[in-house]
Amino acid sequence: MARAAHAQGSVSSDVVPGTEILTLDGEFDLSNCAEFERRLSEASEPEPTDILVDLRGVSFLGSTLLHALVSGLTRANECGTGFALIRPNAFLWRVFVLTGLSARFPNYASIHEALPDVEQAGHYTLLRNSDGAVLAEFESEEAALEVIERIWEGELPARGVSVVRREDAFALSRVI
Question: What are the angstrom distances between the C-alpha of 5 and each of 1, 40, 64, 121, 161?
């Protein structure tokens, strides 16, 4: 019953030179995977491009999502383009390991690892969890500082995150 309330998944995309990044958030199963499949097929049009699928925000995945990812990898191989994943949390990644899919997909822990040039272009890491996975990234230092200040001032709810201000800097930690 609790899963039904959170059954929505969302797909967003960003393009960096030579690569389209598809970011998934939420739960993905038979009921809502069609949008991802559509975005995945559109990502290679009109010209084939490398695809990076960011799964860090996925909280549940069904076999339909796994099938869509395998289909995307197959299409990329046929077109001669790249197709890689940014791994989800360890619990969900275990599905990839147990099914043997972890060996089929090039996979990375973060966007910075997958696309080192993006980091040099000015992406800032705001917070990492204990496994080192990036929980939030921003295009500029100013955007990151704005969010940190809003959390500090109590304007932006940040469940599970504490902010400590030290002189001209902020420290963030995850509250367990």
Answer: 7, 26, 19, 38, 24
| 53: helix, strand or coil | strand
Going along the chain from its start, the domains and CATH numbers come out as 1-117 (3.30.750.24), 122-176 (no CATH)
* 41-48 own/partner pairs: CB under 8 Å, 24+ apart: 41/75, 43/13, 44/75, 44/76, 44/79, 44/81, 48/76, 48/79, 48/80, 48/81
Query: Cα(149)–Cα(16) distance, rounded to whole angstroms?
Result: 28
Tell me the whole-structure pTM to 2 decimals.
0.65
In angstroms, the Cα distances linking 13 to 16, 49, 76, 154, 163 are 10, 13, 17, 30, 29
Q: What would the pLDDT profile of 38-95 be if each residue is shown by its tens digit? A: 988 888 777 778 999 999 999 999 999 999 999 999 999 998 899 999 999 999 999 9
Q: Which residues contact 24 (CB under 8 A, 6 or more apart)?
A: 9, 10, 11, 36, 53, 54, 55, 57, 58
Contacts of 143 (CB under 8 A, 6+ apart): 124
| CA of residue 116 relative to chain centroid, distance | 16
